[in-house]
Amino acid sequence: MSGTLPRRPIGRIGLSVPCLGFGAAPLGNLYRAVSDQAARDALDTALDAGLTYVDTAPYYGFGLSERRVGDAVRSRPDTVISTKVGRLLEPVAGGMPLAEERYGYRSPMPFEPVFDYSYDGVLRSHEDSLQRLGLARIDILYVHDIDSATHGASHPARLDQLVAGGGIRALRRLREEGSIGAIGVGVNEIDICLDLMDRIELDVILLAGRYTLLEQGALDLLFPRCLANNISVVIGGPYNSGILATGTLPPTPHYNYAPAPAVIVERVRKLQQICAAHDVLLGAAALQFVLAHPVVASVIPGLSNVDEVRETVARAQAPIPQALWAELKAEGLLHPQAPVPD
User: Fold this and answer.
1) d(Cα 108, Cα 95) in Å, to the nearest integer?
2) Element housing 316 (H / E)
3) Pairwise CA distance, residues 76 & 198, whole Å
4) CA–CA separation, 119 and 169 (whole Å)
5) Quick check: pTM over 0.70?
């Protein structure tokens, strides 16, 4: 399986990414262990197929994902790499057993993630990521999980670290020095994106789970502002944690990293029925729908093995009749103003 994919620009900075990328959170052993060989095979297969944008983070397996990504892309200079700041990895004495799950990751990497959005924290996180990746430069650097859902009552203090504590200043310095190509924010919430657009010159937003077949609230305020300010959007979580890939069949489908509530299961059941009537897989509709919006540069589903890579490419290329989108809108399952694939 080899080929190239259409590329789309990131902001105005001269960087472009393929419309389909590789989300590398599963390579940090998210929920289940992935062998080094399986991770490498998945990355090699994806890169050969044209998925030459790979997103990782220190948090993904506490360094494991970055190490695996770096080993695969180091000899592939055409690959666009994004990683994140906001958490530092502190050593854990004695290491960690593979069987122990922490924050969803079954990683043997002996580190504990600690939040730090300050000037020094951002610079150190960037440097540590370069070491783990084995690269001299990072194309896109996202501020990771700077949202109220992650931090709760501590959110104002974390945001103050980023703003008054110099985190934004550190990001600007890295971009001005050429150590990174683009500044972004990677979150699961819309409100914090709107807030940060007033505080920092963003090039791109990685929005996870908030623009999908199930949710189109980003159309109201966020996407129009992104278009007006030449801020690109990368879509993470296009399947809303799995339910738009697996459908409603047992075991219990997941939505937003938790068992799906009944109202979501019923909505997905309707989506699935209409897709089936048009001989379209739900996962294919979910993947292609998000790419129809002009502000979206790429979609990066999480991938962990060769079969998932091949299935993702097939979904992205599957023919979908216009009648499907028309029926979804007629049934009130899509925002009436949502762009759909042509």
Assistant:
1) 7
2) helix 306-317
3) 36
4) 7
5) yes
Q: Which pLDDT band, with edges at 50, 70 and 90, does 101 fall under? A: confident
36 in catalytic set: no
At residue 206, what is the residue type?
L
Sign for the CA dihedral angle at 159, 162, 163, 165 comes to positive
Show the 3-state SS of 200-254.
CCCCEEEEECCCCCCCCHHHCCHHHHHHHCCCEEEEECCCHHHHHHHCCCCCCCE
Q: Could you say which of 59, 84, 119, 239 is catalytic?
A: 84
**Residue the block writes with tokens 């992935």:** 34
**Mean of per-residue pLDDT scores for the chain:** 96
Backbone dihedral angles phi then psi of residue 64, each to the nearest 5 degrees: -65, -45
Query: Looking at 55, 116, 145, 203, which residue is catalytic?
Result: 55
Assign 3-state DSSP to the chain and report helix, strand, coil percentages, each to 5.
40, 20, 40
Cα 81 from Cα 73, distance rounded (Å)? 9
Q: What is the pLDDT of residue 249?
A: 82
Q: Which one of the listed residues 53, 59, 60, 239 is annotated catalytic?
A: 60
Q: Active-site residue 329, yes or no?
A: no
Instruction: Report, as an integer, the average pLDDT of 22-33.
Output: 96
Would you call 142 a catalytic residue per the annotation? Answer: no
Interval 229-283: pLDDT, tens: 999 999 999 999 999 999 998 787 889 888 999 999 999 999 999 999 999 999 9
